[in-house]
Amino acid sequence: MHISGYMAFIYWFGLPFLLSVWSTSVSAQSADLPDGVLEMECHDRYFMMAVDLSFTGNELRFEAVDSNGSVYDITEQYQASCGYSINILPMLGQAEIRASYFSCHTEKDEEKFVFKFNLIAMHDGQEVTHTVNKTCSPLLPWSPREVSCEVNYMEISVRSDQTCPKKGGWDSVLMGAYVSPVSDWQVLFQNRGKLIPMTIVEARLQGYMFVVAGGRLVFRAPYGKPHSFTAMVDGVPVEVVHATLFSRHGWVVLMVDLRVACSKYEGSYSYSDSHSYSDSNMVWRTPLVFAPPASGVSELNSQLDMSNNDGQLKGRDFSIWVNGQLLEPEVLKKRGYVMVETNTTLQISIPYDSEGARRKSLVLDNVYHEYFVFYLYFEHLFEDEDHVETRFRLLRSLATPLRSQPAFSVNQTVLEESMFTVYLGPFPGDVELVVVKMNGHQFTMPLHYISNVVHPNNTHGYTLSVPFEDSVVSSQFYKRGVLQYRLDINCSLMILPERRSYYHLASVEAQMTGIFPPAFEGFCSEKSISFKLEHKPFHSLWRAYIGPDLLTPDLAFDKGYIMNNDSQALHLTVPLFREGYAYKNIRLKKFSGSFEITIRNAKTFDVQDTFVMTCTFPTTELVVCSTDGLMTVVADLSSAMPTGGNPSRSTLLDSKCRPKEADGTRVLFSFALGSCGSSFELVQENAIYKNQIVLNQKLLTARPPDMVTVQCVYPIPGLYRLFLLHRFESEFPGMGSMRYSTKNVTRTTDVHMGPRAFSPQQSVRRSGTPPSVTPKTMLSAGTPRPREPSNNLSGSARFVQSRDWGW
Length: 807
Fold this sequence. Notes:
By secondary structure, this protein is mainly β. Among the domains are: 268-401, no CATH class; 408-513, Immunoglobulin-like (Sandwich), CATH 2.60.40; 521-618, Immunoglobulin-like (Sandwich); 622-767, Immunoglobulin-like. The protein is built from seven helices and 57 strands. Strands 11, 12, 15, 16, 22, 23, 26, 27, 28 and 29 form a ten-stranded mixed sheet that branches. The chain is rod-shaped and about 170 Å long. 35% of the residues are buried.
């Protein structure tokens, strides 16, 4: 925006006499900076004080204090008339008050000006008054005529030694003064050819102010008064107020002509469609030669140097301040400011992203918006044809329209790095990332996943780096051999200093091909099954389980496995009759033993693959206690059988229970635990089922010299169905053992080990016969019917949490 205006003087007695009548003397004072006041500065022609809004509780007001200690509340109407301007700057988190050197209650003389204010703020719901004093001196000598255009008022001051204008054109004004019936000071307003007289008192009641101070006469008028008018100068609107101050003494008239005009151009804007502001500009125009319609007033001649070919202005006639800092011509050029004359106007283009622009961010419906504000102070120095120097000053806040600036995310992931890399941004300097959610896991900043990226245009972004194997990354097999990783990102951002929040969502996926679960090789030996797994990339995505237990070195040791794991391969040897085996097709000569390894997803624990190795082993002696209540026994009776005895004639305690198979020395029995004369007892937390292989039933009435005792031991917690549903179903396989009692030898053989926690100790209850339970008993109205024993024997074991084991 542009300040334009001039003042002409006709004085018949002399302006020094006028100034001597109105002037007063003052004294200067100062005080320290109080809390909450960010800065107090003396500028070229005004005083400025900035106050922290957070300190004031966002509720504050100002009072002016004069030399007598009287206070005046600076209301919106009062500040425009008295030379004050209060501006709230939310983007800076502060309020600012500016006061003209000739403001109403300032103590004034030619060399110094004393400002006194009361800052009234709210603290804990109560008003607290802070006193502020500041003494300022002009930085530059006063020009004969000075015009200032503030945001809410126009002001002109003239010094006393101004000469009369060389040309006429004052006939109508002089005639109006001569015919005035009074000799007191009066004001004559001119508005498009109309003359409106009034007294000084009447003018002040309408908001106009006349002041004599510091050797100068000052006239101030708020914008939009009825006696001002708008003139268009090459398309630029200019508000003009023209007042003539006069006093008649007989045939002599003392007259001071005051005219001030200020550009009301609010600026225009040019945009770039890209995210960059390099092609977006704030454009502002002002007249170079201002001559509002008034007869007899000559145009003002601008002292511009337009000699360069590109049309840009040079010389010392123009000065631009941004945020209170004077910008030298080389600085203007470096920041991209362009000043060009078009017809009779000066056009200034300011890049949005130039240094000194204030960016303001806000959120509307979770969409990030921003605008730019330029706190501009513009000065133009020129002479009229009477060679009277005039200095124009403009203070304006130029704001761009609201513009959305959405953040975006860029997937920069490289599959070979096995890591998600995502760029988030760009964000302006007053926006910061505070919380990141990844697949529902919340993290606060600072965060080791995040690195800050600074850009040269005063914006920044963030790079998120998360390895595929990180626990926050979800993975699943898109199809066989194709592993898909996914990361859902929710970024919570905050605009400072208001701490307004919004969020930005992003999702990234990556697919790896040729990814298959580990595959074991199996090998059979006479007394064990061995496994081998060669380590390959991505095997860490899975874990090996034995039943519900994670395969670890500790688990292998506890269960009696032999495990060796190096960088090349995993080797596992499982001796026969260790926990985890399943037995099938048990015969006197051979039986099948199977061992199963389950491959599970390392994160979800879902079963991905199952590897079962089955081997055929020669049968010697064994006792298998199945989970469905069957005891299968292969016993060698050679040491207990009398000479010439026949194993096929042996029985269990119930003589009806005879061997399924027999040869010259061995027998095979398979029977339900609750049948064939079995006994049952509770020993602490174990249930024990016993039976005997009897070689000669006739000897049962005497001490049995030739018997083989077989038993199965089950943990009671795993037999809940037995006690609740009267149906045998164990969560654990039993521990089997065999004891030989003969005249010559007594020996005990554990031929199939169940969980090692089973240790029969003190008997709690003993009974000659077990509970009336049969394997897989179906309850009915009649007598329970036992199921025929099966030769397909297998069991399950309790889940035990183990330490993690890596490939």
